[in-house]
Specification:
Elements: H1 3-23, H2 28-44, H3 70-79, E1 88-89, E2 92-93, H4 95-113, H5 118-123, E3 127-130, H6 136-141, H7 151-160, E4 167-172, H8 177-197, E5 206-209, H9 215-223, E6 227-233, E7 244-250, E8 261-267, H10 274-291
Helix pairs in contact: 1-2, 1-4, 8-10
Amino acid sequence: MNDSSTLNWLVDQVMKALEKKVEDRESKPHMIAEAATSYEMLAQSHSGELPSDHSIDEVLPHNIPEPRWAEGMEELLASTPARIGVWRTGTRPLTSTMLALRNAHAAAIDAVFSEVSPDLLQEMNLFTVETHYGDMETFLRRPDKGRRINDEGVALMREKCVHRPQVQIVVADGLSANAIESNIRDVYPSLMNALEVYGLSCGTPFFVRGGRVGCMDHIGEILHPEVLVLLIGERPGLVSSESMSAYMCYRPHAGTVESDRTVISNIHRGGTPPIEAGAHMGTVLYKMLEQQTSGIKLIM
């Protein structure tokens, strides 16, 4: 279970304790102590696992009690992870709902301002180049700075990378380092397996720090791959801070328009499964090479 679910479970336990306090004021010291103990146990735990006697249903926000159209509400809730149908206290959301929302917002901020672990990059055998992003404030205010690799990075790419590869794989932090940390170990091997199945050769993969989607065009001008796939962290939302996208393009170059890119988005454990996404990328790249195009002109 992830940290968000753990916190939601904790909030639920605290709320239950407060509800019992209202019912039986004499139990107040016992209930508050029980809630505090639960918090301490979770704070000291690094496993992120919920106690075995608690199901996933218990960590979800409280929904509307006795809705007029119960079946419709159930169908709507099953169709989206968005925060809909949550109940209220007076004119305000439930405390548990608000705490869960603040937790998700904090996770989104952390995803933007955190960095991909050097240990992970070493594990995946990815060397690092940087764009002209400078610092995080500039990166957020000036997207154009993340679209071109700096001079040192260009020299490193020319030195280490295979030129004119059939498939070039690039990983970039984008707007969520957390997305790379959470998915790359599953996506990357799956993609490599798919390329092997289709008989496609791969160039030298590497990592771009401070990268935006447009950096694939600059990389295309330097390495001249037939097709390039950019695995990049998506802008985090309040449902997931771990969502990654794969942007693929046939012979990317300066002036490539967005309609020439093919994208697989929402790659995370609650969306498009990472292993499935990696396998599908192999199919898409194969068709790009076969049809010598990408984006809206590509026939899948």
